[in-house]
Amino acid sequence: MAIALHSSFPGGGATRSFTQRSVSRQPGPSASFASSSRTNGGQEARVLENQNDVRMEELASKVSALHKVTIDIHDEVQDQHGLLDQTDRTMGVFGGRLQSTTRRFQTVMAQASTRQTCYLILGLLLGLWVIFYLFRMMRQSPEV
C-alpha cells in the first residue's frame, strides 16, 4: 500500500510528493496505532491539499493580474508605435518643405540685385531694432 504525502516548503510555494511503502507487519498492538496514524495522515493530507488549493488560487490571481498588466503594456506600446509613425510622416513632410524653401532661397540669392535688396532689408531691420533698444534703455534709466 502506498501513502502519498504532500509537503510544502515555506517561501517557495513549491510542493513535493513523497511516497512511503509500508512493509507487511504482524498483527498485534501496533496495528491499532497504524490505523490511527493513517487517519491522522489522511487528515494531514487533506489539510495540505487545502493549503495547496489556496496557494494555487493565489497564484492564479497573480498570473491573471500579470496577464492584464502585460496586455496594458502591449496596448501602450502599440499606441506609442502609432504616434512615432505619425511623427515620422510629419517630419518627412516638414523636411520636404524645408528643402523646397532652401532651393527657392538659393535661387533668389543667386541673383545679384536680389541679394543687395535682402542685405538692405536686413540692415534696416537691424537699425530699427537698435533704435528700439536704445529708446527702451532710456525709458528704464532713472532720472538724476
UniProtKB/TrEMBL annotation:
Entry keyword annotation includes Membrane: yes
Gene3D superfamilies on file: 1.20.5.110
SUPFAM superfamilies per the UniProt record, alphabetical: SNARE fusion complex
Signal peptide stretch: none
Keyword Phosphoprotein found: no
Limits of the T-SNARE coiled-coil homology domain: 46-108
Membrane topology, as annotated: Single-pass type IV membrane protein
GO biological process, one term: protein transport
Regions that span the bilayer: 119-135
Any one annotated GO CC term: Golgi membrane
Location relative to the cell: Endomembrane system; Golgi apparatus membrane
Record region (Disordered): 1-51
PROSITE patterns cross-referenced by the UniProt entry: T_SNARE
Keywords attached to this entry: Golgi apparatus, Membrane, Protein transport, Transmembrane, Transmembrane helix, Transport
Bias (Polar residues): 16-42
Protein name: t-SNARE coiled-coil homology domain-containing protein
Organism, as annotated: Dimargaris cristalligena
Lineage: Eukaryota, Fungi, Fungi incertae sedis, Zoopagomycota, Kickxellomycotina
